[in-house]
Amino acid sequence: MDEEVRLMKGNEAIAHAAVRYGVDGYFGYPITPQSEVLETLEALMPWETTGMVVLQAESEVASINMVYGGAATGKAVMTSSSSPGISLMQEGLSYIAAGELPALVVNVMRGGPGLGTIHPSQADYHQAVRGGGHGDYHFIVLAPSTVQEMADFVGLGFDLAFKYRTPAMILADGIVGQMMEKVVLPPQRRRRTASEIAEQCPWAVTGRPEGRGPNVMTTLELDSYKMEDNNRRYKATYDLIRRDEVRYEEYLTNDADYIFVAFGSMARICTKTIDDARAEGIRVGLIRPITLWPFPEKPLEEMSKRVKGMLVVELNAGQMIDDVRLATAGRVPVEHFGRLGGIVPSPAEVTDAFKNFISRIG
User: Fold this and answer.
1) pLDDT exceeds cutoff 90 at 211
2) Residue-wise pLDDT tens digits, 166-195
3) Are 177 and 33 contacting, i.e. CB atoms less than 8 angstroms apart?
4) Which of the chain's ends, N or C, has fewer CB atoms near its CB within 10 Å?
5) Among 43-47, 90-94, 211-215, 331-335, whose mean pLDDT is lowest?
6) Which residues does 336 contact at the CB level (< 8 Å), separation at least 6?
7) How confident is the model at residue 75, as a pLDDT?
8) Whole-number Cα distances in Å, 163 to 3, 160, 236, 246
9) d(CA 362, CA 359)
């Protein structure tokens, strides 16, 4: 077989995909339920094969600032953490966005607030899609629902980050990080040379060659008018991303009277619920946002013109539902079902919630 197929956890797939993409550096700190990312990289020892740097920093604050420094030189660098660790990184992430730097951040979510629980959650949705740190900025946010997508989204995340010079985030819940599935691993790519980085990233801080002025990397601008120009430039980039990079998946929506909206592991549970409901003659489908930002507003807007209602299923108290309601603009009833504290609902629980929902709205 030409394909290399392996059985592994979602966290392990992140690590393998990073090495195979040709990542230059990983800087992180262990925290459940994503510690296998760093552990797998340490076991793979890519510094001996590709030259990739793998460093366990002294804290999440240190690791994100190492990412900032590496990204400023045009290198492909990344970090991974879980919810409380990502919270500690927010200032650095805002700096990376303001510096217009490509980087990849992986958040394998656990329950909160506070230290919360080590069990799965989707309660970092607002933090991820609304920026999280200070100022007007966005990440490109990718939400995998399979271990295969954990691997695939490493390459996609870096490609988008470099295309738009903005950070990208893989936002996975703890289920996707910890579960094991078959994965087709990507082929090995070599790391870029210094000359290739200088050609592809003319903005990077790579030293001052003859015939070019110095590149200066800063996020500070004391002139209000210039700072406004900076913010307008960021917004222009975000508008392009909103126009061109929306990704989503539909399941049995063509004839649906009702729609589930779910991402990550909850989308998987909803597909089982949909199959059971259709066996009873209830026509229901699923829209799974793959990019949580940019959000698939237009598909949901169009769907809201022909269905009777939408049920948003999340592992939180209701966060993505805000974006679904904005997209549907009150055309149809939109309600939420979720579990909290790391409890994962069964398909039967989702089915009961769905039947209660349709009994109320007709």
Assistant:
1) no
2) 999 999 999 999 999 999 999 999 999 999
3) yes
4) N
5) 211-215
6) 311, 312, 313, 314, 318, 321
7) 98
8) 27, 5, 14, 15
9) 5
Contacts of 315 (CB under 8 A, 6+ apart): 120, 121, 122, 123, 173, 264, 265, 266, 338, 339, 340, 344
Q: What tens digit of pLDDT does each residue of 11-34 get?
A: 999 999 999 999 999 999 999 999
Which among 138, 124, 142, 33 has a CA at the least distance from the CA of 86? 124
